Each structure stands twice: as structure tokens, then as C-alpha cells.
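Example S7 (C-alpha cells).
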């Protein structure tokens, strides 16, 4: 996605999670570009600036670069510009970033940003400053209003807070889609099979994993690409399996009524709703009875989502 972008309609930001607010911004870019007879473009950073400037406190992304690109390519944008974010790049003033990067390299006629947009050294630039600088060089700048869902502002921070609490329903509403993890199925210790509930163990992705607990999920094969395939209802445990010898965080999914082997395949696990927190049981028998109850509850949740 690229080409000559002079005179394009551009949006700039991080777009972590690509939530409803981001989608509204992109939709406005597309509409404005059509009205202008211009190309539509998005400029973003990789890695996320926080992962460079404060890696010790930076949270994992909600979408890795592969998934973000797949989503953006499907949005209808003409171009996506990926800027490698470095400490040196971060030292630019807002004026320098606008004139020497965006205008010199891309040359848009319009820039659209969200209400909480900041840019330049120390996030010192705002949407208001961008509009003021833009007026000096003949650049049209539009600041898009805040998107709200259920009376709350939609933001990446709010979605992270919901996922950290296991509230995947709330996160999905703000995202505008069910929260997913993608990865390859790795071999486990077959503990689930011994209990009568075989699981597909997802390689722990470098993405935000919801809070420990048991979830009703939906699983699909990804194959070599990112296309959707058949879906199966599932029950997913996120955690360290405290009933046995606790270890690293695992994402283990029992596919309900599934027969087959997914080892080595890429799958997407979509988190529909949380069933319960993770807890320690007295032994395998008590755990097995609880898993049966979890599967029954997951069937109910899946039926509700299908209505």
C-alpha cells in the first residue's frame, strides 16, 4: 500500500487495538478523500512509542503489526505509512515533525486526528497546535470528536483496563468486534486429554492477554493467510493451572464437539464472555466436574451470541 501521496487525506496516530474511535476516524478520512477526489492514507508508528521510551512500563499491544496491517488493508485505505519509531525520531519538535516529515515526505492536503492526539518531543504538540501550524502552510486540519459507547469514552486505555479485569464484553463493545488472540497451536503436556477435555494450547502471543480465568470463546483456523474458516465453540482457560504445578501463563482452549488435531496450525481465539476466575481445585476429579459445568455454561453463552 503506497505510491505518490501528495494531496492525500491523511490520519496520524498509534491505532493500538483499532477500536471504534479509530474506525470512526478512518471512515471520516475515506469520506473526505472521496469528496476531494484524493487518496486516503494512514501514518503510524512501529514499535509503539511507549515501547521505545518507557519499555519497562509499556503494555503489550492489542494488535501486533501483522494483524494491524490485515485490518487496515481491509478498511479501504489507499496507503499505510509505517514509521520506525526511535529515540532520535522522538526528539523532533512538533513543528519539525509536521514540516520535515509529514509535509516533506507525504505532502497531504488534509490531516485528520482524534481529540486526544499529541505529537512531537514529549508529546508537546496537540490537535490545536497542529491546526495552528497547518493554517500557516495551507494544510487543512480536522480534529474528530470523541466516540462514546454506553456513556463512556472509547480509548485504548479503557479497553486495556477492561481486558485486565477480564471484562471482555465491555472491551468488545468499545472495539466494535470480539477481542481475539492469534497464534500457533503448540504441543502441551496432554493434561486436558487425561481429564477428558483435550485442549489446543496457543503459543503465548506478544499481545495483551485477558485476565486469568475461564472464558467462552470462538475458534477458527487461520491457515497460511488471515482468512476466516469454519468456527467452533470453545472454552478457554487463561492462567497458570494452580491445581497442578503452576508455571507460565497458558492459553488453553477446549473445542466443544470438535474432532481432529490442530497441532502446528494457526488459529484465532475470540473471547465472548468470562465464565469464572481461575482457581485452585482439590484435585483432578473436582477440576473435571468444574470443566463440565464450564462447557455447559459456554454452550449457553454461544447460543445467546448466535441469536
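Recovered sequence:
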Amino acid at each position: 500500500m503506497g505510491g505518490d501521496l501528495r494531496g492525500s487525506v491523511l490520519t496520524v496516530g498509534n491505532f493500538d487495538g483499532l477500536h471504534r474511535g479509530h474506525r470512526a476516524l478512518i471512515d471520516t478520512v475515506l469520506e473526505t478523500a472521496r469528496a476531494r477526489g484524493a487518496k486516503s492514507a494512514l501514518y503510524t508508528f512501529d514499535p509503539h512509542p511507549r515501547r521505545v521510551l518507557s519499555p519497562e512500563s509499556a503494555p503489550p499491544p492489542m494488535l501486533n503489526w501483522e494483524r494491524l496491517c490485515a485490518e487496515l488493508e481491509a478498511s479501504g485505505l489507499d496507503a499505510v505509512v509505517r514509521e520506525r519509531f526511535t529515540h532520535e525520531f522522538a526528539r523532533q519538535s512538533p513543528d519539525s515533525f509536521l514540516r520535515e516529515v509529514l509535509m516533506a515526505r507525504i505532502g497531504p492536503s488534509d490531516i485528520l486526528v482524534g481529540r486526544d492526539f499529541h505529537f512531537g518531543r514529549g508529546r508537546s504538540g496537540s490537535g490545536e497546535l497542529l491546526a495552528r501550524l497547518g493554517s500557516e502552510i495551507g494544510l487543512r486540519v480536522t480534529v474528530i470528536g470523541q466516540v462514546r459507547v454506553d456513556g463512556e469514552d472509547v480509548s485504548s486505555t479503557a479497553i486495556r483496563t477492561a481486558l485486565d479485569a477480564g471484562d471482555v464484553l465491555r472491551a468488545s463493545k468499545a472495539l466494535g468486534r470480539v477481542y481475539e488472540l492469534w497464534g500457533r497451536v503448540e504441543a502441551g503436556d496432554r493434561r486436558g486429554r487425561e481429564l477428558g477435555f483435550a485442549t489446543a494450547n496457543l503459543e503465548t502471543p506478544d499481545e495483551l492477554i485477558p485476565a486469568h480465568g475461564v472464558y467462552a470463546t470462538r475458534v477458527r483456523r487461520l491457515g497460511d493467510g488471515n482468512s476466516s474458516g469454519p468456527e467452533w465453540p470453545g472454552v478457554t482457560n487463561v492462567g497458570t493451572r494452580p491445581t497442578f504445578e503452576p508455571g507460565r501463563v497458558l492459553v488453553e482452549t477446549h473445542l466443544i464437539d470438535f474432532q481432529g488435531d490442530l497441532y502446528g496450525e494457526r488459529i484465532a481465539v475470540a473471547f465472548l464472555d468470562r465464565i469464572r476466575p481461575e482457581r485452585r481445585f482439590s484435585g483432578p476429579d473436582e477440576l473435571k466436574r468444574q470443566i463440565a459445568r464450564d462447557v455447559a455454561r459456554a454452550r449457553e453463552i454461544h447460543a445467546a451470541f448466535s441469536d
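Notes on this example. The chain has two domains: 9-152, 178-306.
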